[in-house]
Design brief:
elongated, 20% strand, alpha/beta, 3-stranded mixed β-sheet
Length: 207
């Protein structure tokens, strides 16, 4: 406790218990230290901009500190930066020569790249893909796949051409695409046809 705090405490003792309590509170406040809130996201984005040559614009709702453990800000790569943004509820959307950093809840408001099965992107890059389903109904896949899509993603079926439209991070989209390919095969379609042809009596007997 420094000299100023001692003087405050001595004066408070002369005032009785009320003064002593106030003095102790003041001494604690003086000795307290600010809480480490991590690396400001503005600073981290500036470091990434310098390393990559990309130009960033931060949405007004993007702010705060990023807690980094075991790694220095200057060591972070662009793919790792995207993963960090995802962990904090943000995303990067490339818009011409600029990269917008926005809350992931707003992702569906921005145009995203439309990719094909042959395209490769960074794991946490937000993309859209149209997937053709051959042997089963695309609409029937919706309740199976929807729990795997985050709230900021998009999943819809286009019955006329039996296609699925999916918007999500590249890594998760590829996972969902693999599930669709496993389900969308002649054997699955044949099994479904056999079940639909079963008579009520046969269905009851099976139970």
């Amino acid at each position: 406790m420094n000299k100023t705090a001692l003087l405050i405490l001595s004066a408070a003792c002369a005032l009785g218990p009320w003064g002593a309590t106030a003095a102790q509170t003041g001494a604690l406040a003086e000795d307290s230290r600010p809480v480490d809130t991590g690396v400001p996201i503005e600073r981290l984005t500036g470091i990434i901009a310098k390393k990559t040559g990309k130009r960033f614009v931060l949405d007004p709702h993007v702010h705060g500190g990023i807690s980094l453990i075991g790694v220095e800000p200057g060591e972070i790569s662009y793919p790792e930066f995207l993963a960090i943004l995802n962990a904090y509820g943000y995303a990067a959307v490339e818009d011409g020569k600029l990269v917008r950093i926005v809350p992931d809840a707003n992702l569906r408001q921005f145009p995203t790249p439309i990719i094909t099965p042959k395209d490769t992107r960074l794991p946490y890059e937000y993309v859209t893909q149209v997937i053709a389903v051959k042997y089963i109904s695309a609409a029937q896949l919706i309740p199976i796949l929807r729990p795997m899509i985050p709230i900021y993603g998009h999943l819809a079926a286009y019955p006329e051409s039996n296609m699925l439209i999916i918007s999500d991070y590249y890594a998760n989209l590829r996972r969902i695409e693999a599930i669709i390919r496993d389900l969308d095969n002649p054997e699955t379609a044949k099994s479904r046809t056999n079940v639909s042809k079963a008579t009520p009596a046969e269905s009851g007997a099976a139970h």
